[in-house]
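Changelog excerpt

This revision adds worked examples to the README so contributors can see how folded entries look when concatenated. The first example is reproduced verbatim below.
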Amino acid sequence: MILLLRDRATAEQFEQMLQQHKFYIKTAVDIERRVLVGGGDMHYDCEQVLLGDGSRQENIWAASFMPLVIRFPESITTQVFVDLRQDYPGDWLFVEKFPPV
C-alpha cells in the first residue's frame, strides 16, 4: 500500500507499506517539503504520488529501507539513497550507502 506521510510513520503504517515487498520499503522523499511517500512497487510509484501532491522534481530523492523491528519504527536502516533526476551530471543514478542509524 502506498502512503503519503507528513509525520512520523506509525507501526501500523509500516505494516501497510511493507505489504508490497515484505521486508523492505521503497520510498520517495521531497527534501524541501519534508514529505515522504512509501510502499510502492518501484520508487517511481512513490515519486508520482509526490508530483501529484505538488512536489517539484528537483526536490525528490528516493530510498529503500528495511525496518529492523517492525514494532519499533524508530529502528530503521537506510540502505540506499537514489537521485531520481535524469538531469544529474554524469550517471543519472547516484547511489550512496549510509551506515545503520
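The second example, added in the same revision:
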Amino acid sequence: MTEHGAAGAGGDGTDGAAAAKRALVRDLALYSTFRVALVVVLTAAIYYLGCLVTDQMPLVVALLFAIIIALPVSMVSARTLRHRVNANVAVLGAARRERRDDFRKRLQGRSE
C-alpha cells in the first residue's frame, strides 16, 4: 500500500504522464499508419507510372523506391504529428527520471 501511496502522491506528474502515454500511443499509431499508407500510395504510383513507361515494372523495385521516397516526404508532411510524438516522449522521459530520482532518494534513506 505504501508503494501505491507514494506513486499516487505525485498528483499532477502521474496524471500528466498517464495522459502523455495515452496521447503517445494514439499519435504513434496515427503516424505509423500514415507512413504505411504513404508507402502504399507511392508504391502504386511508381508501379503504374513504371508500367506506362516500360512494359513491365517489378513490384519490389517500386516498393523499394517508395520506401526511399516516403522517408523525407513523411518527415515534411507529418511534421506536426511527429512533433507531438516527440513532446509526449519528452514528458514520459521527465516523469521516468523523476520517479527514478525519487526511488534513489528513498533507497538512500532521504525523504525530501
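Reviewer comment on example two: The radius of gyration is 23 Å. Confidence is low (pLDDT under 50) at residues 1-12.
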